[in-house]
Amino acid sequence: ELPPSEFMQVADSTWLVLNVVSNGREPPGCQATGVTKIARSVIAPLAEHHVSVLMLSTYQTDFILVRERDLPVVIHTLAGEFDIYKEESGECVPVTSDDVSNGFLKPKPAASPMLHPVQSPQTRFCVLTVAPDTLPAIATMLIDVLFYSHSPPWDAGTGSQDLDSITFFSFSLIEGYISIVMDAETQKRFPSDLLLTSSTGELWRMVRIGGQPLGFDECGIVAQIAEPLAAADISAYYISTFNFDHALV
């Protein structure tokens, strides 16, 4: 419903959302959380079949966005390890490889990982949530932080490798669940009794992937970041945006 505008850029692909739902049985000895839990089983196989993904980690769970035209490849790639369902009129309907037609399987591309610069600012971030019924109490402050408080994002120079800080604020509202990522200094502006976060009060550091906007046709970036972290049993959150990828550890 948004009106066309010269100020709004829209990717030319339509994206579908995948959500991995656990059956309650975690792999033995697996302590990693966030994107690293599904790195080997989902993200890496898709990268091997040249499927580009966008990742969105939230306080509650992780979401993988794939282009609609890649869906046949996605289903055939993951069907051996997962039970796949699609939502129709609010109901979950099983999907099999026979339900998608032609266009697969893409041949595995030659290994040619792209190398991107990374920036790791000193900023410390909080991953938190807020109850929907308390949102009105922080709405004015939230709007101010989202749209009016930050300096222009390019002030520090896009090519800088030693940024002291980074302007980053993520707000997700998915099926009534709110997930927020903000820096520790910004968190101090909000009433502490309304923001729910980890009982340990842990903070996160960020690695931003890309010195210039990434291409939507690039694949394997999430896997290159998440797989080594999963192997080292390191928890991570991962947020893809229109221009860059951001990994929080």
From TrEMBL:
GO terms for biological process: negative regulation of TORC1 signaling. It comes from the Eukaryota. One of its GO terms (molecular function) is identical protein binding. Residues 116-199 form the Cytosolic arginine sensor for mTORC1 subunit 1/2 ACT-like domain. It holds the Pfam family CASTOR1_ACT-like. The keyword Ubl conjugation applies. Residues 11-78, 201-249 form the CASTOR ACT domain. GO terms for cellular component: cytosol. Its main location: cytoplasm. It is found in: Cytoplasm, Cytosol. Keywords: Cytoplasm, Phosphoprotein, Ubl conjugation. InterPro entries: ACT-like_dom_sf (IPR045865), CASTOR1_ACT-like (IPR049479), CASTOR_ACT_dom (IPR027795), CASTOR_fam (IPR026249), CASTOR_mTORC1 (IPR051719). The keyword Cell membrane does not apply. Forms homodimers and heterodimers with CASTOR2. Interacts with the GATOR2 complex which is composed of MIOS, SEC13, SEH1L, WDR24 and WDR59; the interaction is negatively regulated by arginine. Interacts with TM4SF5; the interaction is positively regulated by leucine and is negatively regulated by arginine. Functions as an intracellular arginine sensor within the amino acid-sensing branch of the TORC1 signaling pathway. As a homodimer or a heterodimer with CASTOR2, binds and inhibits the GATOR subcomplex GATOR2 and thereby mTORC1. Binding of arginine to CASTOR1 allosterically disrupts the interaction of CASTOR1-containing dimers with GATOR2 which can in turn activate mTORC1 and the TORC1 signaling pathway. Belongs to the GATS family. PANTHER family: CHROMOSOME 1, WHOLE GENOME SHOTGUN SEQUENCE, CYTOSOLIC ARGININE SENSOR FOR MTORC1 SUBUNIT 1. This is Cytosolic arginine sensor for mTORC1 subunit 1. It comes from Sylvia borin (Garden warbler). The lineage of its organism: Eukaryota, Metazoa, Chordata, Craniata, Vertebrata.
